[in-house]
């Protein structure tokens, strides 16, 4: 066995041990354009305010992607979370009312088990 | 396809949001209809649409004031809502069969509440108990914990006496509206099941608009 193969085994968890995840595609309806960083900070604030440190760590939230959509004042993004915490994350997203004093309303459009699935639009 | 309704939305002239804007956002979120319930006044310029219902939310300082205002608006609007929170106002509202909805009975900051007697009156008179998501969205920490606790108490009583309950956003801006699925997730925070929350957004609001409970109980609507 070569060194590279052994290294690759060490770096990646075997599939059976990997976390099961869900990818939420969401839409941010906002007053003015907001920054990805500001948004992620607000998502964490809201999640920790609602579920505390323990609950927040269980949901394993991470912002994969966020960009401005073609519509003037909306943004779309993809958020990763644990597969059994979708409703909790959804509630904490719904609790976000402003990002840096700009009013926002977030809704989840699609939930998928893969990033590819979350990116693909409904036909 | 379910028909979702949001029966507590505030529009221009009370707030900056126009009825058209609110309706377009609500439609985008998947609502079938919204009800405009401004405090103490009915919107004058009414747009002809079967998706918008015009009601009023009565804000009263005292019980006699409430009775006077109910008399004033009763029978003229499609939806008669009472701004709850104060214990005396809550009681007067659920005792009055002309009232359709008691909005946020636990107050906007979790200060008021309902007891078993009042919820039973509400069930008898067909007054829908409103669970207001705006107070969960806009408050944090102690205030939100108190509101959620109150809602949990009321939910227990509502289940026991089978009173009608609805979920509303009490939106003052277009950004305050939340999609139905988000509302259901928020309702889960105080222990409401998915089925209950769905019917509190679909069937029960429809029934309130059709005055289903009033007809069942032969309540006289003047």
In words, what does this structure look like?
The complex is a heterodimer of chains A (123) and B (222). Chain A is α+β, with helices and mostly antiparallel strands and 123 residues long. Chain A has a single domain (19-119), classed as Ribonuclease P, Pop5 subunit (Alpha-Beta Plaits). Helices cover 38% and strands 32% of the residues of chain A. A 5-stranded antiparallel β-sheet of chain A has the order 2-3-1-5-4. In chain A, a hairpin with a 2-residue loop joins strand 4 (98-99) and strand 5 (102-112). The longest helix of chain A is centred in the middle third of the chain and has 24 residues, at 36-59. Chain A is globular, with a radius of gyration of 17 Å. Chain B has 222 residues and is an alpha/beta fold. Chain B has one domain: TIM Barrel. Chain B is 43% helix and 18% strand. Chain B has a 7-stranded parallel β-sheet with strand order 1-2-3-4-5-6-7, with helices on both faces. In chain B, strand 4, helix 3 (87-95) and strand 5 (101-103) form a beta-alpha-beta unit. In chain B, helix 3 runs parallel beside helix 4 (116-125) and helix 4 (116-125) crosses helix 6 (141-161). The radius of gyration of chain B is 16 Å and the shape is globular. The chains are: A alpha+beta (123), B alpha/beta (222).
């Amino acid at each position: 066995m070569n060194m590279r193969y052994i290294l690759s085994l060490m770096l990646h968890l075997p599939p059976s041990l990997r976390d099961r995840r869900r990818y939420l595609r969401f839409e941010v309806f906002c007053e003015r354009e907001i920054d990805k960083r500001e948004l992620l900070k607000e998502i964490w604030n809201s999640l920790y305010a609602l579920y505390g440190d323990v609950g927040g760590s269980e949901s394993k939230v991470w912002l994969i992607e966020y960009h401005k959509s073609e519509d003037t004042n909306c943004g779309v993004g993809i958020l990763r979370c644990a597969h059994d915490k979708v409703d909790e994350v959804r509630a904490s997203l719904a609790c976000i009312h402003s990002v840096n004093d700009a009013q926002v309303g977030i809704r989840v459009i699609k939930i998928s088990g893969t990033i590819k699935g979350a990116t693909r639009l409904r036909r | 396809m379910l028909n979702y309704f949001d029966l507590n939305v505030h529009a221009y002239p009370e707030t900056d949001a126009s009825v058209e804007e609110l309706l377009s956002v609500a439609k985008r979120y998947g609502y079938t209809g919204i009800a405009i319930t401004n405090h103490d006044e009915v919107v004058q310029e009414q747009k002809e649409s079967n998706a918008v219902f015009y009601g009023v939310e009565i804000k009263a300082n005292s019980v006699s004031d409430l009775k006077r205002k109910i008399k004033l608006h009763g029978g003229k609007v499609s939806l008669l809502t009472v701004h709850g929170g104060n214990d005396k106002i809550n009681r007067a509202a659920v005792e009055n069969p002309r009232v359709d909805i008691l909005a946020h009975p636990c107050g906007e900051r979790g200060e008021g509440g309902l007891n078993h007697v009042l919820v039973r009156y509400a069930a008898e008179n067909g007054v829908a108990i409103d669970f207001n998501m705006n107070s969960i969205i806009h408050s944090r920490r102690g205030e939100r914990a108190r509101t959620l606790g109150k809602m949990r108490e009321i939910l227990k009583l509502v289940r026991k006496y089978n009173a009608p309950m609805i979920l509303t956003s009490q939106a003052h801006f277009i950004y305050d509206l939340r999609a139905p699925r988000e509302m259901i997730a928020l309702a889960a925070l105080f222990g409401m099941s998915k089925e209950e929350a769905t019917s509190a957004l679909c069937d029960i609001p429809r029934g309130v608009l059709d005055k289903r409970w009033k007809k069942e109980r032969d309540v006289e609507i003047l």
